[in-house]
Write a structure and sequence with these properties.
Blueprint (H helix, E strand, L loop, with lengths): L12 E2 L2 H9 L8 E5 L7 H4 L5 E5 L3 H10 L17 H4 L6 E5 L5 H10 L6 E7 H7 L10 H7 L2 E9 L4 E2 L6 E8 L9 H13 L5 H4 L24 H14 L3
Parallel strand pairs: 2-3, 2-4, 4-5
Antiparallel strand pairs: 1-7, 5-8, 6-8
Helix pairs in contact: 8-10
Length: 259
């Protein structure tokens, strides 16, 4: 029995065993004992995860895939199935333990998956996985490049991101219309946002909302505090600021409000 790929779930099943092994092997497996695979499909990654010295969990909403996995991978017991990743309460399900996340991620919810991970960064020290190439490039983007933007800054505030390799369309069933890219994210030790995460997201999104304009123009919508009106970052574009610059700027902005 094979699983039928379902378009509404964004399923494109990886068929190349070597690539699957390379994705799994990209995890360091250091500092955690559990791995959560998102969208396992027919278990092309699962097979190699189960060979590792970690406890493997799977987040899958396709009942046909769940039946297939239970039949072909008996090591996966009932408690190893966690349902919808985007609805999973990670600290509750895993008892506050740290775990890695891995997957050939559905392209239609790529950004949501990344935001779910950064919302739980204190529990997820590492992630390896495959996204649409454009998303992988944007996630790993660096300042002063076309790929650098909102997704780059929001993810890299919590993780160091490395673009590992490109995967071509012909190793999937059905083949997607775009190339894919595999990235690895490792939680970083950058100075924190000190509880200013909401303001940080507002500044990043507004700054890149008009990326060809200087920050002084693009941030007007937020109401720039008087004490920040001559800040040096306001005279340049968002794409010229590093992630650390955005973090520092956010903390200074909040401090200037005196709250």
């Amino acid at each position: 029995m094979d699983v039928r790929a379902k378009k509404h779930l964004g399923q494109h099943f990886l068929t190349d065993q070597n690539i699957a092994r390379d994705i799994v092997d990209s995890l360091s497996l250091e500092g955690y004992k559990k791995v959560l695979e998102v969208g396992p499909g027919m278990g092309v990654l699962t097979k190699f995860l189960l060979e590792k010295d970690v406890e493997t969990y799977v987040a899958e909403i396709d009942n046909e895939s769940i039946d297939y996995l239970k039949k072909h991978y008996p090591k996966l017991e009932e408690q190893h199935f966690v349902g919808d990743f985007l609805k999973t309460d990670i600290p509750a399900v895993f008892g506050g333990e740290e775990l890695a996340v891995i997957g050939n991620f559905p392209y239609n919810i790529s950004s949501q998956i990344l935001f779910k991970i950064i919302d739980n960064f204190q529990y997820v020290p590492e992630m390896s996985g495959m996204f649409q190439k454009e998303v992988a490039e944007r996630t790993s983007g660096v300042p002063r490049t076309k790929d650098y933007g909102i997704l780059s800054v929001l993810v890299q505030a919590y993780y160091d991101v490395e673009y590992l390799f490109t995967v071509h369309e012909n190793v999937f069933n059905p083949p997607p219309k775009v190339k894919s890219g595999v990235i690895r994210m490792k939680r970083n030790l950058k100075p924190g946002l000190e509880g200013n995460e909401v303001l940080f997201k507002q500044i990043v999104k507004a700054g890149f909302g008009q990326r060809r304009k200087k920050m002084s123009n693009s941030l007007k919508v937020l109401g720039i505090p008087e004490a920040m009106s001559s800040h040096r970052f306001l005279d340049i574009r968002a794409e010229e600021l590093s992630v650390a610059d955005f973090i520092d700027f956010t903390n200074e902005w909040k401090s200037s409000l005196g709250v």
